[in-house]
Amino acid sequence: MIxxxxxxxxxxxxxxxxxxxxxxxxxxxxxxxxxxLSADGARLYVTCAGPVSxxxxxxxxxxxxxxxxxxxxxxxxxxxxxxxxxxxxxxxLTTT
Length: 96
Prior knowledge:
There is one protein chain. The chain starts with a strand and ends in a 25-residue tail after the last strand. Helix content is about 0%, strand content about 45%. The protein is mainly β. The strands form two sheets. Strands 4, 5, 6, 7 and 8 form a five-stranded antiparallel sheet that branches. Strands 1-2-3 form a three-stranded antiparallel sheet, with no helix packed on it. The protein is built from no helices and eight strands. The protein has a single domain, classed as Thrombin, subunit H (Beta Barrel).
């Protein structure tokens, strides 16, 4: 399975590599571009550019957008003038 950001249609398409077909499309905020899948595959993080910079979180099992998706803070340098196009997930380091 491959997730594809469809900026023009404000969707994330789920492409089944075995059948060669799109099996589902998930509506997200405007202009999705960057995608990152959690290590366990449970969540898909989607950067959406407009009209407000947002990171949408998709539950991959239910294929629903989490209602707590976050608007990027204006505290981030240039967040109002820049649009997110990519993101990276990094595991938290813990000490024992």
